[in-house]
């Protein structure tokens, strides 16, 4: 098969690879590979949207924004992050075409292999060609010279003083006067942003508490006139939706019961209606209700649309004209969230984002103050969040930045910065500099940032607390063994006691409890802060996942050794009973497959079966599929796969464990113990627990399991006045 050679790379469709000038190779996902191949095969002609959809997805029944997202990813790879290069050109209302195809060379496989082996010797030649054709590939609207930015009054004086050299020359007065006028205009334009919410004095602020109820204040919104605060208030009875007049303190509410609760309030731009979600046995439904000076107007409540699964946490927002709304929806656990736009006049709605299936999808977003862009959060592999920008006019998307944890919400800080929170820190990402900076560090965690032109609002407090509990399998009882006012989680049973993660010192740490003593084992800071799914290995080491790769960490020296290949995308793993092997799932082209690694030799065994979580049991492997119910038993010797329980449903490896002939499953308010006999799963007992367990580990010697138990804390909504 032919390969395509450009001034910057060699593309091998058959291998799904891009090889760059410096010799590095990028393996392309199937959708990017197919898209690039289709554009190149068209030889510079326009490829219409339907043809690209057919080539990339095998169907034309997808939204065109699906292709826009793929093309956006592809441009980043083939343009080599150069502003002077634009290989793929948008053809408005038609599709895309490959620019400057006449500079692409077709090479056969033999020639391609020779190029790959000797690419270093060709670098000079290729760079010369790149220099020659880059002006032809430059975007038509590219800015060649950047304007000088006036940063302060002192820089203005410098420019004015430099103009004094014209004094004494002919027409000096005219030139000086014109220059002064020009500087005044430039200063007005360039310095204006410094007085907007983009450039608040982040080092000087005072705090005003806006809510005082017992419980947790969750997501919230403020009306454009700053008169009303709508917020979700959670107490022992459920999640209410409260509407508070900030000036008078008058509060109205929509109150929850056992089968109904509320979330995600958003005001329209005329301050007379509120958008929100209702969660009940009917699933998730989006409503609009009228408001006036007295509060809610029950006779102006109407259902807008269905928003998919009950218990989903997603965002809502009006568009700038309040005649359409944005929301996120997923119809099943197997489907990622997508963002939709719904027209309030016609009822017409369509999805405007198309995320990959390897994660939660696109669930949280914020509309820019000018109404032209939507910033949204895309969950990656259920462990990372990437923040994207969607141009609402042309549907183009681009990734802004990525963070190694799940992000709940974002907000705009003017039109040029994105506000987000990470633990105790409130951060903002500058779209111009493409860098994040600290806005303010709090003594307590903060969430759900919101802004107006002069203030920042957050929910502050310990939203969750977590203790460590123990399950005795012989007596089938549970008891709390570690209690604190912090988040103690992810217990690991060891010979010395219990290892667990904690935020007791304000950051990620590994602690150990032995007897009645609790001591800090090590700080998990820097890169180690991102390690998840930690387990103990031979008492001296920890094994975990860092950046989608399995790592071994020396508890004393903190030395990190990589156990899995760099290109793997791994979500979770399980150690064998003798701790000599581990089994895990890795992602390939948006599907997950089970592999086994020998820790001592590094030998990798690829089983060739699909699965997302896996556990060892009697020389066999129990596994579940990605976003689908069912528990399966796989025999690595015979390669046979047997369905044990079609209704078994778990989507996280941390939420189930196997101990001898028992399977233990944790979920909200419940720990279930099953018997595993002859390939059958039988419930022994379901134990009620007062919270939400998220991680469980078991020990065959002590015949116990330990799990963390999350419960509700207390928070408040505050205003930062700058």
TrEMBL record:
It comes from the Bacteria. PROSITE patterns: OMPR_PHOB. Residues 1-100 bind DNA. It holds the Pfam family Trans_reg_C. It comes from Pseudoalteromonas tunicata D2. One of its GO terms (molecular function) is DNA binding. One of its GO terms (biological process) is phosphorelay signal transduction system. This is Putative transcriptional regulator. The chain crosses the membrane at residues 172-195. Keywords: DNA-binding, Membrane, Transmembrane, Transmembrane helix. Belongs to the TolB family. PANTHER family: PROTEIN TOLB HOMOLOG. Residues 1-100 form the OmpR/PhoB-type domain.
């Amino acid at each position: 098969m032919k390969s395509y050679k450009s001034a910057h790379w060699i593309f091998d469709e058959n291998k799904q690879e891009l090889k760059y000038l410096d010799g590095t190779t990028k393996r392309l996902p199937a959708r990017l590979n197919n898209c690039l191949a289709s554009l190149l095969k068209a030889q510079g002609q326009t490829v219409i949207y339907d043809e690209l959809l057919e080539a990339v997805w095998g169907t034309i029944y997808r939204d065109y924004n699906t292709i826009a997202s793929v093309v956006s990813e592809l441009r980043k790879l083939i343009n080599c992050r150069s502003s002077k290069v634009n290989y793929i050109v948008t053809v408005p209302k038609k599709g895309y075409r490959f620019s400057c195809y006449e500079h692409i060379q077709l090479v056969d496989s033999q020639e391609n292999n020779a190029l790959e082996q000797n690419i270093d010797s060709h670098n000079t030649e290729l760079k010369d060609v790149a220099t020659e054709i880059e002006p032809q590939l430059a975007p038509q609207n590219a800015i060649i010279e950047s304007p000088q930015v006036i940063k302060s009054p002192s820089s203005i004086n410098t420019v004015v003083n430099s103009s004094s050299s014209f004094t004494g020359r002919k027409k000096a007065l005219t030139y000086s006067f014109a220059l002064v006028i020009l500087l005044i205009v430039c200063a007005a334009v360039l310095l204006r942003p410094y007085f907007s919410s983009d450039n608040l004095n982040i080092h000087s602020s005072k705090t005003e508490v806006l809510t005082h109820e017992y419980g947790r204040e969750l997501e919230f919104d403020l009306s454009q006139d700053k008169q009303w605060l709508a917020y979700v208030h959670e107490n022992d009875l459920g999640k209410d939706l409260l509407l508070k007049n900030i000036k008078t303190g008058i509060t109205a509410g929509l109150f929850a019961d056992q089968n109904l609760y509320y979330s995600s309030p958003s005001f329209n731009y005329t301050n007379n209606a509120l958008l929100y979600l209702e969660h009940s046995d009917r699933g998730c439904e989006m409503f609009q209700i009228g408001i006036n000076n007295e509060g809610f107007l029950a006779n102006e409540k109407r259902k807008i649309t269905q928003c998919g699964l009950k218990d989903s946490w997603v965002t809502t927002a009006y568009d700038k004209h309040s005649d359409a709304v944005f929301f996120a929806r997923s119809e099943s656990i197997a489907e990622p969230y997508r963002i939709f736009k719904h027209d309030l006049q016609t009822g017409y709605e369509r999805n405007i984002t198309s995320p990959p299936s390897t994660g939660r999808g696109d669930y949280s977003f914020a509309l820019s103050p000018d109404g032209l862009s939507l910033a949204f959060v895309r969950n990656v592999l259920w462990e990372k969040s990437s923040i994207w920008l969607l141009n609402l006019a042309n549907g183009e998307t681009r990734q802004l930045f990525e963070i190694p944890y799940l992000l709940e919400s974002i907000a705009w800080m003017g039109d040029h910065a994105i506000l987000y929170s990470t633990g105790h820190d409130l951060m903002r990402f500058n779209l111009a500099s493409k860098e994040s900076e600290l806005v303010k560090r709090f003594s307590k965690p903060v969430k759900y940032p919101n802004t107006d032109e002069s203030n920042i609002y957050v929910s502050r407090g310990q939203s969750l607390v977590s203790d460590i509990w123990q399950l005795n399998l012989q007596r089938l009882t549970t008891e709390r063994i570690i209690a604190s006012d912090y988040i103690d989680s992810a217990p690991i049973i060891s010979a010395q006691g219990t290892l667990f993660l904690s935020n007791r010192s304000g950051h990620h740490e590994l602690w150990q409890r032995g007897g009645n003593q609790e001591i800090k084992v090590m700080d998990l800071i820097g890169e180690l802060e991102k390690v998840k799914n930690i387990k103990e290995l031979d008492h001296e080491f920890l094994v975990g996942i860092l950046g989608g790769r399995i790592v071994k960490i020396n508890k004393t020296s903190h030395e990190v050794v990589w156990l899995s290949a760099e290109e793997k995308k791994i979500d979770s793993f399980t150690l064998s009973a003798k701790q000599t092997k581990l089994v895990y799932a890795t992602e390939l082209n948006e599907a997950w497959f089970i592999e086994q690694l020998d820790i001592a030799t590094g030998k990798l065994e690829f089983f060739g079966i699909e699965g997302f979580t896996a556990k060892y049991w009697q020389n066999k492997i129990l596994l579940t599929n990605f976003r689908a119910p069912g528990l399966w038993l796989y025999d690595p010797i015979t390669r046979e796969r047997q369905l044990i329980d079609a209704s078994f449903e778990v989507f996280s490896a941390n939420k189930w464990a196997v101990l001898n002939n028992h399977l233990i499953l944790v979920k909200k308010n419940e720990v279930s113990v099953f018997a595993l006999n002859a390939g059958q799963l039988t419930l022994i007992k379901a134990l009620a627990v007062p919270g939400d367990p998220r991680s469980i580990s078991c020990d065959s010697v002590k015949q116990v399991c330990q799990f963390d138990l999350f419960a509700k804390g207390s928070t408040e909504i505050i205003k930062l006045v700058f």
